[in-house]
Amino acid sequence: MKSAWLLASLLAGVVQAEEFKFDAAEFEKKPFEFGGYFELKTERAWLNRDGSFYALNGLDRSTLDRNTATLKLNAKLTQGIATFKLSADAEVRRDDLSSERINRFDEAYASFKPDPGFTLDIGKLALKWGKGYAWNPVGFVERSKDPNDVELAREGYTMVAADFIRNFTDVLGGDLKTVAFTPVLLPVGNQSNSDFGQPNRLNAAAKLYLLYLDTDIDFTWLGGGSRTPRVGIDFSRNLTSALEIHGEWARTRDVETRRIDAAGNVSSETRDATSYLLGLRYLTENDTTWLAEYYRNGMGYTKSQLADFHALVDSGNAALLAKARQMSQSYGRANAGERYLYLRASQKEPFDIVYFTPSATVIANLDDGSYSFTPELLYTGVTNLDLRLRATWLKGGAGTEFGEKQNARKLELMARFYF
What we know:
Elements: H1 2-21, E1 32-47, H2 52-56, E2 63-79, E3 82-95, E4 99-115, E5 118-125, E6 157-167, E7 176-188, E8 201-212, E9 215-222, E10 230-238, E11 243-260, E12 266-283, E13 288-296, H3 303-314, H4 318-331, E14 339-347, E15 356-365, E16 371-382, E17 385-395, E18 407-418
C-alpha cells in the first residue's frame, strides 16, 4: 500500500508539473506581432587619391568619416484569412561633406490566404527570386543586392502577386514533389515604382517553381514594358548534407549599353545579353562555412571599356571630365565588369569562444585582377545585441575596377539592438 501510495503521489506530482509548465498561449498564433532594431554605425574611409572616382567627386582630403543611425520597424497583424505586414526604414547619415535622411517603407502589403494552396498579396513587396548569395541574375522584379552586404534589407516594389501551390508527395509519390506558380503585376507611374523603368506601363512577370528529384528549380519571366523582356532559370540541390550547389541563368532582350572611350566619344549598342551564376556552399566538420560563386554579367563592361573610362578621367581635361561625370553612374555601379568571383569563409565559435563568428570575403574582377578583401568579426553574446567590426581593402592597378574606386580602405563598427 505504501508503494502504491508513493507511486500515485509521484504520478500526481508529474501531472501537476506538466500542468504548471504547459501554457496553451505559447502555441497560439499571435494576432499582432511587432519588432525591429535600432542600429548605430560609424565608418572611416581612407580615400584613394589616385582613383578616377576620387577625381570625379572633386574631393580634397585623405579620409572621410560617416555616422549612420537606423531604425527598422516590422509589424504583422493577422485577422482571419488576411495578414497585414509592414516594414519601415528610417535612417540619418552624416559625413564630413553632407547629411542625408531616408524615410521609407520597404514593405507594406496585405496578404490573403483563403486556402492553403493559394495566397494573394497586394501592396509593396520585396520579392526574392534566385538562388545566388551575392548576385541574382533572375531577380527581375527586385532591387539589386549589395554584394558587400548581402543581408542588407532592400526596398520592395508596389505590385499584385499570387501564389498557387500544389503538393504531390501524398498523391502521386513520384519524382515531382511540389509545383508553385507566382504571377506578378507591377505598374510603373511617375510616383509609383518610378525607378523600375519607363513610366505608364503595366509589367507582367511570373515564376514557376518545381521540387523535382530533390532539386529546387525556378523558371522566371518578365514581359516587355518598363524594361525589356527577359527569361531565366535557377536551381539548388544538396549533393550531401554538407555540400550544396546552386546556379542561375538569365537572358535579357534588347539591352542598350552606352559607352565612352578614352577620347570622349560616346556610343550606344543594343543587343541581347546572357548572365549566369554558379555557386557552391560547403560546411566542414569544424563548422567552417565556405561559399564560392562565379558570376558572368552579360550587361557589364569589358576590361578595355573600363580602362578607357578611367583613362578619360586621368586625362585631366575639363571637357572630358564633364562627359565622364555623365557616364559615372553606369561605370561606377557595383560590379560593372563582366566576370567575378565571390569567395567567403566564416567560422562558428572558433577556439570555443561562444557567440563569436569571424569571416572573410573576397570579391574579384577576374578580367582585370582587381579585388576587395573584407574581414569581419561578429559577436552576439549579449541578449538582443549584435556587435560587428568590419574592414575593407580595395586592391588593383591603374585602370582596374577596384583600383580606381574612391576608397582605398574602410573600417566600420556597428552595434544593433533588437526589440
